[in-house]
Amino acid sequence: MGRWEPNTRERLAKAAMELYAERGFEQTTVAGIAQRAGLTERTFFRHYADKREVLFAGSGELEALFVRAVAEAPGGLGPLGALAVGLDAVGEVFTGRREFARQRQAVIAATAELQERELIKLASMAAALAGALRERGVEAPDASLAAEVGIAVFKVGFERWVEAADERPMGDVMREALDGVKGLVR
Amino acid sequence: MGRWEPNTRERLAKAAMELYAERGFEQTTVAGIAQRAGLTERTFFRHYADKREVLFAGSGELEALFVRAVAEAPGGLGPLGALAVGLDAVGEVFTGRREFARQRQAVIAATAELQERELIKLASMAAALAGALRERGVEAPDASLAAEVGIAVFKVGFERWVEAADERPMGDVMREALDGVKGLVR
Asked: How far is CA A176 from CA A153, A158, A160, B145, B154, in A?
């Protein structure tokens, strides 16, 4: 138990999600999460800064991965093509994680403070993607527009993936959403 | 002075903007705003709930106007066409208000709390626009995608309009941004 337990972090996340669903995010305490996981509060704080971080711990890595994939996409691709490569990379990360994503989405939808945090995360991703596109030689206004469209696709695609009756690869759903935008224009 | 002064509200807004620019939003107090405007705090609170509301007072009306224009756009228009009508209506509201918009943008960019509020405002607009498009018979996923694209255009277009060296009608800049999205797809 404790320090050397291999999956301590996952156990804490699972316990937190259960309590957020049962009691609500605001009513859940770190002490309660630790108890449910059969661990101490001290162990919790070795893994997460606070109870909110259980939900947002991977955001920085996700943004970095998305941006890197866009930056390193084949040079011949235009802005939307490069974003499609980024969305594929993001989709792979979520393989096998739909149940967690679904629970997380429900907790966030129920709590205004968390919705704000989620919006900030998306705005940060949009700014970082615009930067990556400018690095690829896309003009500033087009880079910002394309990045915002990429985030719109990510947001709508993510919701669709989480809510679908059957589990499909996230990459496929994202491609569909991107095709949806193209269809609107045509 | 005070209650029956015709342009009290505008004087308060002007005084607030000056102080936000000079001292920063966080360091500005309602007492300071009232003093600068030559009015009392009590008068301030008859017009605004708090110092943040000076910056967001028109948000609800703007959203309602945008949504109504989309809802009432000619029936033959597709989702992006209806959004273009909405963006035109929004553009008209800002005629002659670029200086205020520019100051407001600078204050918001400098304050994390205000950026969050701005993101929430945009997310609320996106949800309301998606609802208006569904009412027009647009399928749910396309309605959400189109609404997010509309907000992307509004966000990028607004920044471009505010930052441009010369003042152009906002509607023209919004149309350009929408054409920019179309150009990305083609």
From this structure: 9, 11, 10, 11, 24
